[in-house]
Design brief:
alpha/beta; seven-stranded parallel sheet; 8 helices; 45% helix; 15% strand; globular
Length: 258
């Protein structure tokens, strides 16, 4: 999509660099491929660098516009190395997509501390670390940039049995608004937004329920979202002109009841 007279379009980001966390599969993989096709440089981050490399190569056969980086968002030094690699290859980051996230289904009365800690470390602290380091890059590159959090409809209401997971996604909502306020107070030309999908057919449900059979049953109830649907929402946010900030996008499958 070319930029129109009123500033809409992805041409404004061509040649700019996006860093996508959790880019080895699902929504992150769809996002990485879509942004490459839109003319951006993409730094794909995940714990499995080989899988990220496969995703990026599919959309960037020359390898000139992409970089696969091993990164665990729970580890501050790992995140710092990822951003250092982005600076070395492309000069820094202009767009951050905080996509890495996970969940464990368990009641609060029976939850396991290691699973709670993992959700908090990935969904909340990892997002904060990546956001902080992306802001440093954006400010060093002149201040313009965009940060997009991939949240969840669980951040809008509390599904049964999802207490701690829902709490982490409510935290993402709060962090989105807190960052917006900070940016405005500092007069930063950086935008922030959050996309909250409902059911999306990825590997999330199998991990969340610890059962591929249960995941297939959930996905078979009605037509759920595809990862590309979420990528389309990200492109819409990025395509808006500088004076437009889309703060929240809620994406439900049409047939999802809650």
């Amino acid at each position: 999509m070319a930029t129109t007279a009123d500033g809409y379009g992805m041409a404004q980001w061509q040649g700019k660099t996006a860093l996508v966390t959790g880019a080895s599969n699902g929504i992150g993989a769809a996002l990485a491929g879509r942004l490459l096709r839109e003319g951006m440089h993409v730094v794909g981050c995940a714990r499995r660098q080989d899988r990220v490399a496969e995703v990026l190569t599919a959309a960037d056969t020359s390898g000139q516009n992409s970089l696969a980086v091993e990164c665990d968002v729970r580890d501050e030094k790992s995140v710092q190395k990822a951003f250092a690699a982005a600076r070395k290859r492309f000069g820094g980051v202009d767009v951050l997509i905080n996509n890495a996230g996970l969940g464990h289904a368990n009641p609060l009365a029976e939850g396991k501390v290691d699973e709670w800690r993992e959700m908090l470390d990935v969904n909340v602290l990892g997002l904060c670390i990546c956001t902080r380091d992306a802001l440093a890059d954006m400010r060093a590159r002149g201040g313009r940039g965009h940060i997009i959090h991939i949240g969840s409809m669980a951040g809008q209401r509390v599904p049964a049995g999802a207490g701690l997971y829902a709490a982490t996604k409510h935290a993402v909502r709060a962090l989105t608004e807190a960052l917006r306020i900070e940016l405005r107070e500092n007069n930063d030309p950086i935008r922030v937004g959050e996309i909250c999908p409902g059911f999306v057919e990825t590997g999330f449900a199998g991990h969340y329920m610890k059962s591929e059979e249960k995941a297939r049953e959930v996905y078979s109830r009605f037509k759920v979202l595809e990862a590309d649907d979420v990528a389309e929402g990200v492109v819409y946010m990025l395509s808006c002109p500088e004076h437009v900030q889309v703060h929240d996008i809620l994406l439900r499958p049409t047939e999802q009841p809650t």
